[in-house]
What we know:
Structural class: alpha+beta
Bound molecules: the ligand Nc1nc2c(c(=O)[nH]1)N[C@H]1C(S)=C(S)[C@@H](COP(=O)(O)O)O[C@H]1N2, molybdenum atom
Radius of gyration: 30 Å
Number of helices: 14
Shape: globular
Helix content: 25-40%
Oligomer: single chain
Amino acid sequence: xxxxxxxxxxxxxxxxxxxxxxxxxxxxxxxxxxxxxxxxxxxxxxxxxxxxxxxxxxxxxxxxxxxxxxxxxxxxxxxxxxxxxxxxxxxxxxxxxxxxxxxxxxxxxxxxxxxxxxxxxxxxxxxxxxxxxxxxxxxxxxxxxxxxxxxxxxxxxxxxxxxxxxxxxxxxxxxxxxxxxxxxxxxxxxxxxxxxxxxxxxxxxxxxxxxxxxxxxxxxxxxxxxxxxxxxxxxxxxxxxxxxxxxxxxxxxxxxxxxxxxxxxxxxxxxxxxxxxxxxxxxxxxxxxxxxxxxxxxxxxxxxxxxxxxxxxxxxxxxxxxxxxxxxxxxxxxxxxxxxxxxxxxxxxxxxxxxxxxxxxxxxxxxxxxxxxxxxxxxxxxxxxxxxxxxxxxxxxxxxxxxxxxxxxxxxxxxxxxxxxxxxxxxxxxxxxxxxxxxxxxxxxxxxxxxxxxxxxxxxxxxxxxxxxxxxxxxxxxxxxxxxxxxxxxxxxxxxxxxxxxxxxxxxxxxxxxxxxxxxxxxxxxxxxxxxxxxxxxxxxxxxxxxxxxxxxxxxxxxxxxx
Length: 563
Ligand SMILES: Nc1nc2c(c(=O)[nH]1)N[C@H]1C(S)=C(S)[C@@H](COP(=O)(O)O)O[C@H]1N2
Ligand SMILES: [Mo]
């Protein structure tokens, strides 16, 4: 039996397990904080959460990724990182509890997670070498050491600890790995025996001091790392701030009057940059310094391989075009479509100068693979890029240099193709190859090799489940069939006949068109459905398909109740 004395001096096992969990939490926090600080010295992308998150994104099955984009939209990455942090928190708590009984095993567990982070960081496609392992490794060492020390305080006799929270823990009596370790259950268990063997309970003061100091130092390290990481890319930001886009030699054709309808609730013809959707796999937005940026063009049938600087690009003839971009993950009625005024150089001209010929003129390469600084690969048909459409290496968006989120300093755009097969952001390499020889990133993940944008239309107003008053209700939205052009839009009320909507003036066939339909709404619930017909005469199909492998099809409907 334990004496009263012992009861006061050593926490009951339950309390000890709780303190163990707390120690685990603090160790995890310290590990991540130190990793954050070290990553500021290496690269922000080398941090364990970002690296593991990136690896998770790459391994996420397409339907899950698609689901995440659908449900969290552009916040999908935030949700993923929060998920990783939550999982790590649980693991840290568990390792802390484990360490109460198996102190070395608990610390080794922390190290193991460091190894996982290190492997993830060094195997990222944009990894710059073994240095990327440092944040995870150093962070895990700090976390493991802290856990070991804190757990030691739970067993160290108070007398050992006066002014010495860091007393070498090897002599601590209670926790042993393997046999003889304290047990959770049962009076008279080895745990109790251990306590009694230790005699003097635990070093409360030492624990509190060590835990508080660790928490404070970790918070400091974490915040410092955060702020350093926030400042990385200063040169990139400066290079963007300095950039004044030259006037295009071929300005965008003026947007015809009447391309924008005056209907409240309809998507504006030009999507403001801040509202433009963003879809990519980058957990940390690449900050590329335009002054060091290079684009290499090489590969099959490239008679004159070339490397261009940003200056080289700006010295070329710049063209400006409105182009509507769409994501293959956009569901029927979804938000991942936007129209912007882009400025850039014509990719086809550049390729011709390098000696590239499209397959129709005997060129040996049928696939152009664009590669970004973050290791993304995006493959487009050379034929489409060189068939006369305005395929661009874009440097500007809506009159400004590209925002970092949208690919600064240079991105690709090919009108008519979904973004994942055309719109490489942060581009740094173009390789001519064949579809047989190489599968880019998304194709490896079961998306289609070729993916022209499907003819689609969307009802922007009224919103689903709106309750407009009976009488005149304006139904309006946008329709797109890039590079074919939208010819006609029709609206159907319930199971009634298809009725012609009014189309806004067409800018070019590469841009979407607004449409409107004045509806004489009668009371009750109604379903409004829209369909577009493109210039090839194809009516937008009502056959619903999923987004994978080559884009959703089907028609958008909205249910409203007219009061
Ligand atoms: N480097 C890089 N470029 C990328 C992607 C990416 O993940 N990484 N995603 C592509 C996809 S799927 C789309 S739809 C468009 C979206 O461009 P935006 O974010 O500027 O709208 O970028 C494309 N370019
Ligand atoms: Mo996309």
